[in-house]
Amino acid sequence: MRLLALFGMILFSVTSFAAETKVVVEAPWVRGIESGMENTAAYFTLKNPGGESVNLVRVESSAARVVELHNHVHNKDGMKMERVDQVTIPAAGSVEFKPMGYHVMLIGVKKNFMKSKKVKLKLVFSDGTTKTIEANKKSYEE
Ligand SMILES: [Cu+2]
């Protein structure tokens, strides 16, 4: 039974290595926050060199309690953040995550976020591939 579990773990790690996405993640960064604040956002540019579009469906991080994909939308009340199920990266195209646009919302950051200079993010795509990146923390003033 233990041997079977070990074999399963090896198989899993081999599979996850093979499933690294072809999508290129450029210039990842996460907004630093003052103590007392709980939420922040991460940004990057996703480039899809492939011949088919692919969707970013989820981002995982141990730095926050909840991680969601968000966009900023205009409505009659002004600007508002809205949760989105996925973000499509067109074939041979790119999508920029940036302030006032698409962003990875980190809700309820944990204590380790305040201390660390980098945040690990695992991007999960619709074709089952993944990519783990490190985003540098920096302050952002507008
Ligand atoms: Cu948001």
How would you characterize this protein structure?
The protein is an alpha+beta fold. Helix content is 15%, strand content 51%. It has 2 helices and 10 strands. Strands 1, 2, 3, 4, 5, 6, 7, 8, 9 and 10 form a 10-stranded mixed β-sheet that branches. The longest helix is centred in the first third of the chain and has 17 residues, at 2-18. The chain is globular. The termini are far apart. The structure holds copper (II) ion (CU). The site of copper (II) ion has 5 residues, from strand 8.
Short structural description:
The chain has 2 helices and 10 strands, in the order H-E-E-E-E-E-E-E-E-H-E-E.
Write the topology of this structure.
Elements: H1 2-18, E1 24-31, E2 39-47, E3 54-60, E4 64-75, E5 78-83, E6 87-89, E7 94-96, E8 103-109, H2 111-115, E9 118-125, E10 130-138
Parallel strand pairs: 1-10
Antiparallel strand pairs: 1-2, 2-7, 2-8, 3-6, 3-9, 4-5, 4-8, 9-10
The structure holds copper (II) ion (CU).
Copper (II) ion (CU) is lined by residues 41, 70, 81, 103, 105.
Q: Radius of gyration, rounded?
A: 17 Å
User: Could you tell me the number of beta strands?
Assistant: 10
Please state the structural category.
alpha+beta
Helix percentage range:
10-25%
Features:
142 residues, alpha+beta, Immunoglobulin-like, ten-stranded mixed sheet, 2 helices, 10 strands, 15% helix, 51% strand, globular, binds copper (II) ion
